[in-house]
Structure formats: structure tokens, C-alpha cells
Amino acid sequence: MVKIEHTIFALPFAFLGAFLAVRGLPNLRQIGWIVLAMIGARSAAMAFNRLVDLPFDARNPRTANRALPRKQLSKGFVILFIAISSAVLVFAAAMLNPLSLKLSPLALGIIFFYSFTKRITWFAHMFLGISLACAPIGAWIALKGTLSAAPLVLGLAVALWVAGFDIIYACQDVEFDRKESLFSVPKRFGIRAALWISVILHLIMLGILACLFVQEGIGYIGFSGLILVGLLLAYEHSLVRPKDLSRANTAFFTINGWISILLCVTTAIDILWNGPK
């Protein structure tokens, strides 16, 4: 029910926000509580999404084999799991600093609200991006105890990246969305236009990250990683065609997992190599 592949998307960006915040390596205590907060947040978010979407998942051939539709888990268990996961996030936030604790209910509200957006707006993909953008922003707050422009810019880049690849993923469900009166960019504009919108979002994302790297004094190692990310995104888009979405899962899971890890590792190495700006 909670896919490790999805957590891989967000966790490296949380670490990236942490590296930028301290301009170095956080201590083991900070890393531990950030990881625990991420586990709680992602577990709560994905379980809540599965619970809320159960009626649709049961009718969608692509999702009918998930745990809840197959009754491998009960609704009561999932509700309890969500409550415990949410409590883990709040507890981990409390162990980091007071501002993290105060903002933890807001983070939960954002990630839970996403599950309802596909019922009301084709902008739902961006709400998913905003949910994952909480990772780097939250990590920055966890270490600094304050908020500034840098994590917000990084969060915007993450939101655009996630929205872009979620649009690709949503192309698989166009007919189902039409049947169930759900909203998505592919349904609203068609698959061909949706794929181009995804390209545009990813190009903007790369531009935003380049500007952030310049502002934060990131050097050639970080920019080398950013160039590789651009190449991976180009490859991701080459895998999908309006009439051939058979490799959409590869584009969604595998490549985006590598993108987040690559960007985090190269930027972290650059920061550790060059020291404070």
C-alpha cells in the first residue's frame, strides 16, 4: 500500500533542503528525525490516498489489484495506520524544533487535501507537486527553525517536476477519468497536449534549479548533476508517445527515482567539497 518507490521521490529532496540549510552535513540526530518525519508523512499520505480513492481504484483495471480493493487490508486497519503515521510525523517534528511542530498539522493538511483535488480540478497534478515540495521546505525549517526564499524556490522546482511526471502517469487513465468525471490535464487537453505541458513544466523546473544553484553558490559538480538530470528528463519524455504509453511506468518510477537521487548526491558533494558560500 505504501510504495518505497514513491518515498524515493521525496526523501532525496528533503536531504537536499537539509544540505542547503546547513551548507554541510547535518548531524546524525537531525538526519534521524528528518527520516522519521518523512516516513510518517509519506506513509500517512499514501494510505490516506488509497483509502479515499478506494471506490475509484476498485473500478479501475489498472488499480484493482491494490491491497484495499482486493480486501487484503481492512478500512479500520488503514485508518489506524494513518493515525499512527501522522503521529510519527508530529512527534519527529517536535523533536526537531518548535516551528516544525507548529507547521506539522499544515503539512498533513496539504498532503491529505491532494487526494480530493482530482474530483474538483485538473490542477490536481500541481497539488501533488506541492505535497512533495513540503519535503525540502520542511527539512530546511527542521534545521534552521526559520523559512527563507531558497527552500521555497527549491520547493517550487520540486512541485513542477512532480506535476510534470504525474501528468505523464495520468495519461494512462484518460478514459477512466472521463467515465468517472475525474479531472486531469490529459483529460482536459488531450494526451498529446498533456505530454507537451509536461515537457514545459520540466524545462521551467531546470531553469529554476539553475537560478537557485547560482544564487546559492553551487559549483560545477552540482551543475554537472543538473545537466545529467536534464538528460534523464529528456530520456523520460522519449519513452512516451500519445499512442504508446506502455513505458509510462518506467518513466514514472525508475527514472524519477534516479533523478531525485542524482540531484541530491551531486549537489551534496558540491556543498561538502566547496564548504559554506
Folded structure, characterized:
This protein is mostly helical and 277 residues long. 79% of the residues lie in helices and 0% in strands. It has 12 helices and no strands. The longest helix is centred in the last third of the chain and has 27 residues, at 248-274. It is globular and about 55 Å long.
Offer a concise description of the structure.
The chain is an all-alpha fold and 277 residues long. Helices cover 79% and strands 0% of the residues. It has helices at residues 4-22, 28-52, 54-59, 75-96, 98-117, 124-144, 149-170, 174-180, 185-189, 191-215, 220-238, 248-274.
**Which percent bin holds the helix content?**
over 70%
Number of helices: 12
Classify the secondary structure makeup into a structural class: mainly alpha
Largest sheet: none
What's the number of extended β-strand segments?
0
Q: From N to C, what is the helix and strand string?
A: HHHHHHHHHHHH
Q: How would you describe the shape? A: globular
Question: What fraction of the residues are assigned to beta strands by DSSP?
Answer: under 5%
Termini distance? 42 Å
Mean pLDDT: 92
Low-confidence stretches: none
Radius of gyration, in angstroms, nearest whole number: 19 Å
Set out the fold topology.
Blueprint: H1 4-22, H2 28-52, H3 54-59, H4 75-96, H5 98-117, H6 124-144, H7 149-170, H8 174-180, H9 185-189, H10 191-215, H11 220-238, H12 248-274
Task: From the structure above, extract its key features.
single chain; 277 residues; 12 helices; 79% helix
